Amino acid sequence: MATTSVAGVDSVQREPAEPPESRKWLVVLFIAFASLMTLLIVTGETGPGALRDSNPTATHVVDGYPRANPPLLGFEYWPQLWQAIGFGGAAILLIVFGMKSWRARRMHNGLVVTFAAGGMMAFDPLYNWLGYFPTDPRFLHIPHGATPWSDLAPTFEPVFFWPLYMLWLTAPALLAHWVWTKLRDRARRRKGPGTWMQRHPLLSLLLVCKLVTLPLDWGGFRLGILTDAFIFSQAPGPLVSAGHTSQMQLLWEPILFPLTIMATSLLFYRDSEGRTLHGRAARKVRTFVRFPRLTEFVVAWSIIALSYVICLSGMAVLRFTGQADELARPWPYQDTQVYDPDGLYQQSGEPGLKRTGSGDFDLIRPVIPK
């Protein structure tokens, strides 16, 4: 609440009132989400489709598909397991927070954060393009040629990445916030009020989130690469398993992408009045009066999106300066055209039909080190 002076008379500017209790918005929200997800599932495809290499080299046959590497632990159904984790984990979050919202007749903060985290799917093709990040064509994905947005991805844009963003960002953020709360309360009991974590709540929350999510995010990405669910086909150093299909760089992961999880953790913070950061900011936006729930979601989405833009900016610097010069060999998806925008696979003699992909430009092209 702020005080202003108009014509010499003090007047009080009150914050917009809380939205009225209702369940209609919740029904509309879930119908819209279910409709869009159903559309993606119905129109999606599996297999290389338009990017098929008609003359693949069958080094290994995995679940009926030619692959360069044997499946991790001999298990052939990693794509199905990854999709089950993405859809199942997001479903749990949406059901739990949806039920809490239904009972309270108000939008639960967890529901805001979950949908805002899923909204980072809007950036995913750009992340995949900047990071030379092909994905297994066995995933249910948006068909190549369907939209310019999804075509930016080196191979395909998997449908389950939408719910996976919800799980990948929200679950670690929830865990980090819980750990931070326990540590702060313990410090207060031992040292009394005025501890460092109490004086610097946001900074301490970010630090705890970084420490908690580091092994989770790194481990998840590492498992994804070892299962050939996705790869970094070209990457800058320093690297783990450099030059192999399972190579993984140490700049984008675990430094840059976890910024989005850290930003997500901030959305669970509440001040002494019980207000969230995005809740307070949303009430300063004019649209809050007519569209309170939508405004709060957009503000929450913007907070995470800002961290994602920072992540993508760091990746862009590495790509546009020609640093991504280490090839992941062999190319694992032998039935799919090799993503080779810089011609490095061609120069190295990698078999398979090559394609440059969409958005094929760089300020400085990477070259194979001599």
From TrEMBL:
Organism in which the protein naturally occurs: Amycolatopsis acididurans
Annotated protein name in UniProt: Spirocyclase AveC family protein
One matching Pfam family: AveC_like
InterPro entries on file: AveC-like
Keywords: Membrane, Transmembrane, Transmembrane helix
Domain of life the protein comes from: Bacteria
Transmembrane segments: 25-44, 81-99, 111-130, 159-180, 201-221, 250-269, 290-310
